[in-house]
Design brief:
Strand order of the largest sheet of chain A: 1-3-8-7
Order of helices and strands of chain A: EEEEEEEE
Radius of gyration of chain A: 21 Å
Shape of chain B: globular
Number of helices of chain A: 0
Strand content of chain A: over 45%
Helix content of chain B: 25-40%
Radius of gyration of chain B: 22 Å
Oligomer: heterodimer
CATH architecture of chain B: Alpha-Beta Barrel
Low-confidence stretches of chain A: none
Distance between the termini of chain B: 18 Å
CATH class of chain B: Alpha Beta
Largest interface: A-B, 38 and 24 residues
Mean pLDDT of chain B: 96
CATH topology of chain B: TIM Barrel
Number of strands of chain B: 17
Strand order of the largest sheet of chain B: 14-11-6-5-4-17-16-15
Distance between the termini of chain A: 38 Å
Number of strands of chain A: 8
Number of helices of chain B: 13
Mean pLDDT of chain A: 89
Structural class of chain A: mainly beta
Shape of chain A: elongated
Low-confidence stretches of chain B: none
Largest sheet of chain B: 8 strands, parallel
Number of domains of chain A: 1
């Protein structure tokens, strides 16, 4: 299994107290693949159900954010490759 | 320096870690004043100017935004922090009694009964007297100012008086009675308390703050005009800074009054932030005005790194002692300084 890779970037090097801070995380893993399974149920008489699609992700990734100053970072968005978190300076 | 750590983990427990460091800082507002209270927009354009000092007499019928000063509203709505100096001093307007109507209520305010800035050989300016204020005779002036303030659309710092030390240095006279410098300071504190009580009892625009104005050149006066009972009702300390001698350094001039404050004032006063309503470099003694201006950012950064009240706003006084000469070079130096930490 491959190891994930991640980068983290803040939208500024310094903040005024109370200012919004945005953290952009870019992450991926060579193993992480979306998979779609299409399922059809058929009976002995040859009747088939309508196809049903199920998606699954192989080797999903979890992202955790911590801050040594104790600030709480809240997730704004995450599309599986890029996540944006927000905190207040 | 705080650090944020990101960990990405897959199902098998493989992880990737990334970090990002950041800094917390409090930048200082670089500000301005243009001679005559004129429109400073052109001078400020393209620069990191974030505050502005303005002067108005309570005697004037146009305080907020001022007579023919629509630009003040534009700047304020654009986020420029206004330090509005409201003075009991008359600026030379007809000094008789005034009758006017504010929001349907008629007020009559008597003629000003005090003289200030009694420098020998000069014409002493008139001002509304501290007794007149405490006796409620000037309430109409405050009502008129407040009514206009409420239409501005943004909150301002109200600095009461420009420089109490300059006003009182040669004593004052009210209704024929002479007061010493010290006595004038005590009376002013009572009157300012009255004005604060008057305004704070009423609905004020969000973001309203208060300070009291001093030049800051006299240590005893600075202490007398900053008792804890008054400071508990004020949001800022304030003093002005001028370089008028070739030996004057930015660090030395900006720190002079701060050092007195740290040594002489109480914990409430020292918990307050500082507005430098005016700073300036007199080109007669310091021909390299631009060079001096360039040393200001480092001086402010150093002072704010030391203990004591933090300077949050410095407004260059392009008038009088601070007149930028030649203007283009001085303005360029100011633009450059305000583009430098701690102003950014």
């Amino acid at each position: 299994m491959a190891s994930p890779i991640a980068t983290a970037a803040l939208n500024a090097p310094a903040y005024e107290p109370g200012e919004q801070m945005l953290l952009t995380i870019t992450y991926s893993d060579a193993d992480t693949k979306p998979l779609t399974i299409t399922l059809v149920v058929a009976d002995a008489q040859g009747n088939s159900s309508a196809p049903v699609k199920v998606t699954a992700i192989i080797d999903p990734l979890t992202v955790t954010v911590s801050d040594d100053s104790g600030r709480t970072w809240n997730r704004v968005s995450d599309n599986g490759a890029v996540a944006v978190y927000r905190a207040v300076a | 320096m705080p650090r944020v750590t990101v960990q990405v983990r897959d199902v098998a427990g493989h992880t990737a870690t990334a970090t990002a460091d950041y800094e917390l800082r409090q930048s200082v507002l670089g500000g301005y004043y243009l001679s005559g209270g004129a429109d400073p927009s052109a001078d400020m354009a393209g620069g990191n100017f974030r505050s502005l000092t303005q002067y108005r007499s309570f005697a004037d019928g146009y305080i907020f935004p001022g007579y023919n000063r629509p630009w003040l509203i534009n700047l304020g709505k654009a986020g420029v922090q206004m330090n509005m100096v409201l003075e009991l001093k008359h600026y030379g307007a007809p000094s008789g009694p005034q009758t006017f109507t504010v929001d349907g209520t008629s007020y009559t305010v008597p003629a000003p009964s005090m003289t200030i800035q009694q420098r020998p050989g000069t014409t002493w300016p008139k001002a509304y007297g501290y007794n007149q204020v405490v006796d409620g005779q000037c309430d109409g002036l405050f009502a008129r100012a407040l009514s206009q303030y409420r239409t501005l659309g943004f909150g301002v710092n109200i600095q009461i008086a420009s420089e109490l030390d300059t006003d009182h240095e040669f004593g004052t006279t009210e209704a024929g009675k002479a007061y010493t410098w010290e006595g004038s300071d005590w009376r002013a504190v009572q009157a300012i308390n009255y004005i604060l009580t008057w305004f704070k009892a009423r609905t004020l625009p969000a973001g309203t703050t208060f300070s009291v104005g001093v030049g800051g050149f006299d240590r005893a006066c600075f202490q007398r005009t900053h008792p804890e009972s008054l400071m508990s009702r004020l949001d800022f300390l304030q003093w002005n800074v001028y370089a008028t001698d070739a030996s004057h350094t930015a660090l030395g001039r900006f720190r002079r009054t701060k050092d007195w404050a740290v040594a002489d004032l109480g914990p409430v006063a020292l918990s307050r932030r500082v507005i430098i309503a005016e700073w300036g470099v007199r080109s007669a003694e310091i021909p390299n005005q631009s060079g001096w201006i360039a040393t200001v950012p480092a001086a402010i950064a150093q002072l704010n790194a030391e203990r004591g009240p933090r300077i949050t706003q410095t407004n260059y006084f392009n008038s009088g002692w601070g007149t930028l000469s030649p203007k283009e070079a001085g303005l360029a130096a100011l633009h450059s300084a305000y583009g430098t930490r701690p102003f950014i």
